[in-house]
Amino acid sequence: MDEALDYNFKVGNLLYDDYFIQIDERNVKNNSLKSLEDYLATNFILKENYINSLIVEYFDSKDNILIQVADFFSNLYYSFLMHKSAYIDVIIKLRKKGIIKNEFIFPLK
């Protein structure tokens, strides 16, 4: 994760700003809920000075439309990556409309 975020800050895909990250709580153990926010804040505010502020909040995806939309696109793209012929027409349309703007392959070579 560090490499991808670091890269995106350096090339200007992510800007110096205030960030509010919403995460599906079903994907996180209860004892680690605060640790992601602490880790990101330490690395991207204190060490690198990439961002101004950071808030991480956890939601049940059934009650949060933004997490549902993110799940939809991540599952669509994952299916495309696993089975190149699946959803190719949808991916092409999303690229043409500018909805899929950048694709990153990590680790960088």
List the helices and strands and how they pair.
Elements: H1 2-10, E1 18-24, H2 33-47, E2 53-59, H3 65-82, H4 88-96
Parallel strand pairs: 1-2
How would you characterize this protein structure?
The protein is an alpha+beta fold and about 110 residues long. About 45% of the residues lie in helices and about 15% in strands. The chain is built from 4 helices and 2 strands. It has a two-stranded parallel sheet with strand order 1-2. The longest helix is centred in the last third of the chain and has 18 residues, at about 65-80. It is globular and about 45 Å long. The protein starts with a helix and ends in a 13-residue tail after the last helix.
The fraction of residues in strands falls at 5-15%
State the separation between the terminal residues, measured CA to CA.
16 Å
Instruction: Note the run of SSEs as H and E.
Output: HEHEHH
Structural class given helices, strands, pairing? alpha+beta
Q: Major β-sheet, in short?
A: 2 strands, parallel
Question: Can I get a quick summary?
Answer:
With 109 residues, the chain is α+β, with helices and mostly antiparallel strands.
